[in-house]
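Any chance you could type out a protein's amino acid sequence plus the matching backbone structure tokens because I've never seen that pairing?

——
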Amino acid sequence: MPPSIKTLPLERLLQSQGFGSRKEARGLIEAGRVRVDGLPCRRPEQAFDAAGLVLEVDGTAWPWREQLYLALHKPAGFECSRTPQHHASVFSLLPAHFVARGVQAVGRLDADTTGLLLLTDDGAFNHGLASPKRHIPKTYRVTAKHALTDELLARLLAGVQLHDEPAPLAALACRRLDETVLEITIDQGKYHQVKRMVAAAGNRVEALHRTGMGEVQLGAGCLAGLAEGQWCELDQTALALLRPVR
């Protein structure tokens, strides 16, 4: 992570949070659209300590963050791209100033896949989570086209051979939740991996929903109550679960 920023002029603090260029930030301040810790401030050059600062822009309060760590409950019909081809972008679900400061998705979910998507503007954190060397477990709920058999579960756990893969890929865990609903955990992150594994085992994925990454799970901790299309910041407990042990 970059060195901590301590005291900066208000216009630079706003700029760092994605509220436009310094000129645009200055315009917001001079127009009386910015409050700091609940108090109005019209002086762009006034300096503040960033730690614990709350910036209020057009009536909405935003705690100052050196870097952002977000969880999004992704709905179907959204692409994990800033230049989507066929659907809306997941970035349209975030505040515009988060997008402006450069948050990126940690990996991708297909347009029709729902569930947990992490986003951050911390490149090292993103790379660490996405690295195959970390083997971060990812858990999915699969709705299959046909009834799930014991043989299919056994094949997924033993490993199935996918086209263009040098060796079979096996699920870390696999259990049937219903006649056609399966929970599966993998740690590789290959292209369309769950869909291809289920197909190779003799069935077809009709719907796919990511429920967790590592020990961070939708519906638990700071992600409790996170509805489709909503985002939240990851708290220190969640971040500690995701960061590698040094």
In short: The radius of gyration is 21 Å. The chain has a mean pLDDT of 93. Residues 22-30 form the longest helix (9 residues). Helices lie at 10-16, 22-30, 96-100, 123-130, 150-158, 193-200, 236-242.
